[in-house]
């Protein structure tokens, strides 16, 4: 029985992870949950699965949760409380399905405790990939990818030697604006962005898919997860989101992972690796109706997010952290209708241009680069 702590249990990935746990009571138990404000969903999870610990970041939400289910489990509060939860938990695995760079500290704490990580929270690897991967290697902790593309690459790499790999091919849906002419970009609305063509996800990542910053973040995530130089990572637009990513080998052979767009598959595989089990009510590909699979190159003029991410990744040091922090600020400003869609690109680029890179990577240098980039981005809104 694997005991799993789900950080971000009330979100898109978190609730699907709870569904995976629910489907296999013989394999998994839910031993801790954490969320920001949504105490109601957390309370339902606590009543049903009886985890030992919970944490709400928001103070009022933690008080509501305590009065509702304080007799069932110990409830912590705030970022500090989340670290206490990590210190106390008996989890065998922590799923990082919270959103944004807030994932860095709890992920590092879990690694320091020797707990395996199922990693959905890509912002943590973008901002602090060097720290996280070094710490995981030092402690012998496994980082199992949940992000669909990285889960796919992980499956394709299984049993292969790294010197056989020529490049990673990360697929992208292209998002809702893939076919929209560039002249319409300044008028793109939040509602248009939230209408993702193939995936149903949380707000922040859905905007990232619309700008294609999601793909840029995923290129940096792949660099750290698979120790792959940036010139051997390529983005391929695959609008049906049936091929979740591929690997090209040195002999020209390409192996891809196919499946319907359903995040429960990579979540469950991260939980059960190297074994496979059925995914409850999973839709399978119908090869008779899947008329075609299309492939396109990304349009780097319309979507400068991808070249900006390659640039940040290749500069290295604190630059990817700065790209991530500025993007987070710009995305929420767009979601709150304070800036236009195309300002997101401009703000991230401007913040990167103003940044003096630090190559001495510590938790302090990452934290200060993250805070600096957020202040700088706010000043541009
Ligand atoms: N959704 C998807 O299909 C995919 C998501 N990912 C990645 O997974 C992560 C989660 O995405 P998604 O599930 O879509 O996001 P959601 O917005 O749906 O959920 C985010 C979750 O994190 C919680 N949360 C927010 N801030 C904090 C914080 N500071 N500390 C603790 N918990 C917090 C939220 O709580 P509350 O509900 O109270 O706000 C919620 O439970 C992101 O990094 C995303 O990029 C990767 C691949 C696919
Ligand atoms: C499900 C998942 O992993 C998302 O990251 C997804 O890939 C987003 O779609 P885009 O390919 O449009 O960014
Ligand atoms: Mn993805």
From TrEMBL:
Its EC number is 1.1.1.267. Keywords: Isomerase, Isoprene biosynthesis, Magnesium, Manganese, Metal-binding, NADP, Oxidoreductase. Residues 259-375 form the DXP reductoisomerase C-terminal domain. GO terms for biological process: isopentenyl diphosphate biosynthetic process, methylerythritol 4-phosphate pathway involved in terpenoid biosynthetic process. Pathway: Isoprenoid biosynthesis; isopentenyl diphosphate biosynthesis via DXP pathway; isopentenyl diphosphate from 1-deoxy-D-xylulose 5-phosphate: step 1/6. Its cofactor is Mg(2+); Mn(2+). Coiled coil: none annotated. PANTHER family: 1-DEOXY-D-XYLULOSE 5-PHOSPHATE REDUCTOISOMERASE, 1-DEOXY-D-XYLULOSE 5-PHOSPHATE REDUCTOISOMERASE, CHLOROPLASTIC. Catalyzes the NADPH-dependent rearrangement and reduction of 1-deoxy-D-xylulose-5-phosphate (DXP) to 2-C-methyl-D-erythritol 4-phosphate (MEP). This is 1-deoxy-D-xylulose 5-phosphate reductoisomerase. It comes from Megasphaera paucivorans. The lineage of its organism: Bacteria, Bacillati, Bacillota, Negativicutes, Veillonellales. The gene is dxr.
């Amino acid at each position: 029985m694997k005991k799993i702590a789900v950080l971000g249990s009330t979100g898109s990935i978190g609730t699907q992870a709870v569904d995976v746990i629910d489907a296999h009571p013989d394999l998994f138990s839910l031993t801790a949950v954490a969320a920001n404000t949504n105490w109601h969903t957390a309370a339902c999870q606590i009543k049903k699965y009886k985890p030992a610990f919970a944490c709400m970041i928001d103070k009022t939400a933690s008080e509501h949760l305590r009065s509702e289910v304080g007799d069932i489990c110990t409830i912590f509060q705030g970022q500090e409380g989340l670290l206490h939860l990590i210190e106390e938990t008996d989890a065998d695995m922590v799923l990082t399905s919270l959103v944004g760079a807030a994932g860095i500290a709890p992920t590092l704490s879990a690694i320091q405790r020797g707990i395996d990580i199922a990693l959905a929270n890509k912002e943590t690897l973008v901002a602090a990939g060097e720290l996280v991967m070094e710490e995981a290697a030092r402690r012998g902790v496994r980082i199992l990818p949940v992000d669909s593309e990285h889960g796919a690459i992980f499956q394709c790499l299984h049993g292969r030697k790294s010197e056989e790999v020529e490049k990673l091919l990360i697929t992208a849906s292209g998002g809702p604006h893939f076919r929209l002419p560039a002249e319409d970009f300044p008028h793109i609305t939040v509602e248009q962005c939230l209408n993702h063509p193939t995936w149903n996800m949380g707000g922040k990542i859905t905007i990232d898919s619309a700008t294609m910053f999601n793909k840029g973040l995923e290129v940096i995530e792949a660099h750290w997860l698979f120790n792959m130089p940036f010139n051997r990572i390529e983005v391929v637009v695959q609008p049906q989101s049936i091929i979740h990513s591929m690997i090209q080998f040195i002999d020209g052979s390409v192996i891809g992972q196919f499946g319907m767009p359903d995040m429960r598959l990579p979540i469950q595989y991260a939980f059960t690796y190297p074994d496979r089990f059925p995914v409850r009510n999973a839709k399978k590909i119908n090869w008779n109706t899947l008329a075609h699979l299309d492939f396109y190159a990304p349009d780097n003029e319309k979507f400068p997010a991808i070249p900006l991410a390659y640039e940040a990744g290749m500069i290295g040091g604190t630059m990817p952290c700065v790209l991530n922090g500025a993007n987070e600020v710009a995305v929420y400003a767009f979601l709150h209708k304070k800036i236009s869609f195309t300002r997101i690109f401009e703000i991230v680029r401007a913040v990167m241009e103003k940044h003096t890179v630090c190559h001495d990577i510590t938790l302090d240098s990452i934290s200060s680069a993250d805070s600096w980039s957020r202040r700088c981005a706010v000043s541009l809104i």
